[in-house]
Write a structure and sequence with these properties.
There is one protein chain. The protein is mainly β. Among the domains are: 1-84, no CATH class; 302-550, Methylamine Dehydrogenase, Chain H, CATH 2.130.10.10. The chain is 0% helix and 55% strand. The protein contains no helices and 50 strands. The two termini are 26 Å apart.
Length: 552
């Protein structure tokens, strides 16, 4: 399970299928699975009701069935503040611990009641765990590490003498778990694995400590008394907990990126690790065997989406420079190319089978839409913010308009099936950054729209602006809108999609509103359509968003 905007994605790795929990109306900030695997709990951040929704947009928790996705309970409206950062089920009771901006709260999740609530003070809590048959609760994070005694009525009492490190405390306690003998094990940003044991006075103190070469991101218990730790440098290590010194049994580098989730499963008696990296790579393998990698989605905020000529595949670019082609039917990556610069926009020419990408490095790069191989590139006076072919089906010599960050539009003639570009004109535009362009159906006029929704119409043949009354010609894709909340829009046939500030999506048939929903708390930066699907891209640098919605 993982989150994407306001959705929870349940992915079956063997069947290569996905299901979605869609009950939230703001971005989901935390997710946990019940020890029975029957229930999940997810928490969302607070937001604004910008679409007059009946449901509350407060920060709250939802507990739901993994089997049929039905909601079992929801709570926290009006009490939880800002963002729900962590949720954790108890092992034996029907309790749930939550952490918001300033408070730790213990709930009875079936009754939807708060049992106790405590201010956390300084520090940033990102890890919680019930231990000792739910009689203790541990909270940890940046400059924060405390043990709480849990009483039968759900009240909490902080143990002041527990959790004291020898010497300097680590900056961040990143993860914790309970070993086979009941010890609490913490991993931290210093690379230390620390074992804590409760004495007869009910105080948790350090029993022993081992050190790794890099900061620890996550840990997991394996069969046979082994512990696996994933580190910031991309290594995974195995430790023998049965040994008095907990010596390292193995070490393997499985990637260059940080690992933020690690799980185990069994295959033919071996412990198979599943590691999900921060750039959305799912890696599988053991410390003794080779690893396989599956790209589950974009690495960072999606800056552009465009449909390919088959209308069964979509091309995306994100802020890390990753350009990928995705199969809409099986939701899998077809090809992927990593560029040296952040890509800000893209457009596709169907007949030439090319993808043109505008880059932050003051250039545009052309790739093959079939394989992702580089075709050519060209330098520009500034970063490209928007690109648009005049007709993706044209077999002659089409034009492509490239808007740059210095408020100019470069018009290029496309030759040699997209392998050569001849500059025809450069047009100044003094009304802000250009975010959208559209060609008239006869390719004579180019309409340019700024971030502030100022509009200019340019005559490509006469190489001058059109003055006077707005041009009433028909346009290839979009209706010009003076709504300053619109971030992007697209159309296919008589159905159009408009995306507004705050992740709002509106679907129209001609001028009739068909559907309105919120898929994220972040803005949608790009959208494309077919007769069957709407593809949305956006999100943030940390939480990318790429959604495929089926039209009813």
């Amino acid at each position: 399970m993982f989150t994407s905007g306001s959705l929870v994605v349940l992915q079956n790795i063997q069947r290569k299928s996905q299901r979605f929990y869609t009950g939230h109306n703001e971005s989901i900030t935390c997710l946990t699975l019940h020890h029975s695997n029957l229930f999940a709990a997810s928490g969302q951040q607070s937001g604004n009701d910008v679409i007059n929704d009946v449901a509350s947009h407060d920060a709250h928790i939802r507990v739901w069935s993994v089997d049929n996705l039905a909601v079992t309970s929801q709570f926290g409206h009006g009490l939880l503040q800002g963002t729900v950062k962590k949720v954790e089920f108890s092992k034996t009771n029907e309790w749930l611990a939550t952490v918001d901006l300033e408070h730790l709260t213990l709930w009875h999740w079936r009754n939807e009641t708060a049992l106790s609530r405590h201010r956390l003070g300084n520090g940033d809590v990102s890890v919680t765990s019930f231990i000792e048959e739910d009689t203790w609760l541990v909270t940890a994070g940046k400059n924060y590490f405390h043990f709480w005694q849990v009483h039968d009525n759900g009240s909490l009492r902080k143990s002041i003498k527990s959790g004291i490190f020898d010497g300097d405390s680590p900056d961040i306690v990143t993860c914790l778990l309970v070993s086979f003998n009941g010890d609490v094990i913490t991993g931290d940003s210093n690379g230390d694995v620390t074992f804590w044991r409760k004495d007869y006075d009910g105080i948790f103190s350090i029993k022993r400590q081992i050190h790794a070469d890099a900061g620890i991101r996550c840990m997991w218990n394996l069969a046979g008394g082994n512990l696996v730790s994933a580190h910031e440098d991309g290594y995974v290590c195995s430790w023998d907990l049965l040994s008095e010194n907990s010596f390292s049994k193995g070490k393997r580098k499985i990637g260059n990126s940080k690992l933020d989730v690690i799980m185990t499963s069994s295959r033919r008696g071996d412990d198979v690790l599943l590691c999900l990296s921060e750039n959305c790579n799912l890696m599988q393998g053991t410390l003794q065997s080779a690893w396989s990698t599956t790209q589950l989605g974009p690495r960072s905020r999606v800056n552009g989406v465009a449909m390919l000529s088959s209308y069964t595949e979509v091309c995306t670019c994100d802020s890390t420079g990753m350009v990928a082609c995705w199969d809409l039917a099986c939701k899998e990556k077809v090809w992927c190319t990593s560029l040296e610069s952040e890509t800000l926009c893209l457009d596709v020419h169907f007949d030439f089978e090319i993808v043109l990408l505008g880059c932050k490095s003051s250039s545009f790069i052309v790739l093959s839409s079939r394989s992702g191989e580089r075709v050519c590139s060209r330098s520009l006076p500034a970063a490209a913010t928007c690109v648009k072919f005049d007709d993706p089906n044209q077999t002659g010599s089409p034009y492509v308009a490239v808007a740059t960050d210095d408020r100019k539009i470069q018009i290029f003639l496309v030759l040699d099936f997209g392998r050569a570009y001849v500059l025809q004109s450069s047009v100044p535009f003094h009304s802000g950054t250009i975010v959208e362009m559209d060609w008239s159906n006869d390719a004579r006029f180019l309409r340019v729209q700024s971030k502030h929704h100022d509009v200019m119409i340019y005559d490509v043949t006469k190489k001058n602006r059109v003055t006077g009354q707005p041009l009433t010609s028909s346009w290839r894709t979009n209706d010009c809108s003076d709504d300053v909340s619109i971030t992007c829009q697209a159309s296919f046939g008589d159905v159009s999609a408009r995306c507004a500030v705050g992740g709002i999506v509106q679907l129209f048939r001609k001028k009739e509103l068909l559907k309105q929903f919120k898929c994220s708390s972040s803005d949608i930066t790009s959208v494309c359509m077919t007769s069957q699907y709407v593809v949305l891209g956006g999100g943030s640098q940390v939480i990318p968003l790429l959604h495929l919605w089926e039209l009813e």
